[in-house]
Amino acid sequence: MLVLGSGLSKAIGILSLPLIARIYTPAEFGGFSLYMALVLVLVPIFSLRYTHAIPLTESLESALSVLMLILVLNLCFMVLFLVLIVFGKLFDTSLNVFFFLLVLVGVFFVSLNEALNMFLVKLREYKPIALIQVQLSLVTESVKVFFGLFTAVNTGLIFGHIAGYGFALFRYKGYVNITLPSIILSLKFFNLKASFLRYKSFPVWRAPSQLMQVAAIQAPIILTSIHYADGLVGQVGLSITLLSLPFILIGQSISKLFYGEIANKHEIDNQELKKVVIRLAKKIVFFSVIIPLILVLFSEELFSFFLGDDWLIAAKITTILSFYIPMQLASSPFVEIFNFYGGQKIHFKLSLIRLIVVLFSFELGVVFFENIEQVIFMYSIGLLIFYMYLLANIIKVVDQGEIREK
């Protein structure tokens, strides 16, 4: 049910993209891309990834305590960032306060949605989760289209995102039956402190690791917004959105199947597992090469037909970025193997390396080239090298490591 709900929600977003690309300009999409990048980077900070601790709690009371801890953390960080925005405005009068306030609202809504989603997972209420995911996507895309067609507001894409997650919060409220006395009890300092300390590994390891992962993914959008105009930010943002689809549709499925297989085995032979990884990686590279090949030959025609002529720069950027897709699809599905060999520390190390590679390759391109396409080429080469390094490390760990006891 969860897979169906997730698939339908993603399908709604994909199917609405051709219409949205025609009613919003690249500059407007650039503002939205920057908004989404900042929201996704800040969410791990606001929740400190205690979200993932909710399903691990022993009781509903403990789960509720962690949920309230996340709420308190979000409110504290909201106040902190509001103060930073006020001080920022004092020193820079050109600061767009309204935009950053929208970012904070978006972060707050997304973070609480994640927490309530995990709370329903703890309750094993999978059907409501799937239903809310679809409804969220429908509301989000509908509001985007409405603002694009019937208003002159240039933040319609942002309003759509906030409206969707705000609606989802309202829907979660109907399924999460929490009484006022239980909330008051959970908000007691000692309960919050106990939850904070018991699951401290999440802010210590999981939060920094995920923050670096998200920052590495969103870095091109943030860096493009620093060096180039909003129109180019929109072109880059759309390209990255489109190129995330192969991994979402193919890579994640392979990852779940592979992880499910090795997780259910009582004994695993390292050398046999190594052969399986190498064999599957070769097949994935062989078949996924068709993605950059199609884009090299037909990207401009495809983008013009489906998205409109305003997005021809995005067609070129997408083609350049597609060079790393085969290696991404060949390596990323096997990352879950690290859960058997060292877990969070290995994820942290790889996340840090990826972030360094992304920042270095992009900024190196900015230093030596003026054209955004050349800069993106440097970034693409950097990611290609990283995914080759990732796959080599996966094979090395499987070959030399000892699987931890499950």
How would you describe what is shown here?
The structure is a single chain. The longest helix is centred in the middle third of the chain and has 34 residues. With 406 residues, the protein is mostly helical. The chain is globular, with a radius of gyration of 22 Å. It has two domains: 198 residues, no CATH class; 175 residues, no CATH class. The mean pLDDT is 87. Helix content is 82%, strand content 0%. It contains 16 helices and no strands.
Describe the SSE topology:
Elements: H1 2-23, H2 26-47, H3 60-91, H4 97-123, H5 126-150, H6 156-175, H7 180-186, H8 189-198, H9 201-227, H10 230-263, H11 270-288, H12 290-306, H13 312-321, H14 325-331, H15 344-368, H16 372-400
Helix pairs in contact: 1-5, 2-4, 2-9, 2-10, 3-4, 3-7, 3-8, 4-6, 5-6, 9-10, 9-15, 10-13, 10-14, 11-14, 11-16, 12-13, 13-16, 14-16, 15-16
Helix content: over 70%
Low-pLDDT segments: none
Structural class: mainly alpha
Shape: globular
**How many domains in all?**
2
Mean pLDDT: 87
Gyration radius (Cα, Å) is 22 Å
N-to-C SSE series?
HHHHHHHHHHHHHHHH
Task: Tally the beta strands.
Answer: 0
What fraction of the residues are assigned to beta strands by DSSP? Answer: under 5%
Work out the helix count: 16
The first-to-last residue Cα distance is 27 Å
Q: Biggest β-sheet: count, sense, barrel? A: none
Quick recap of the structure?
By secondary structure, this protein is mainly α. Helices cover 82% and strands 0% of the residues.
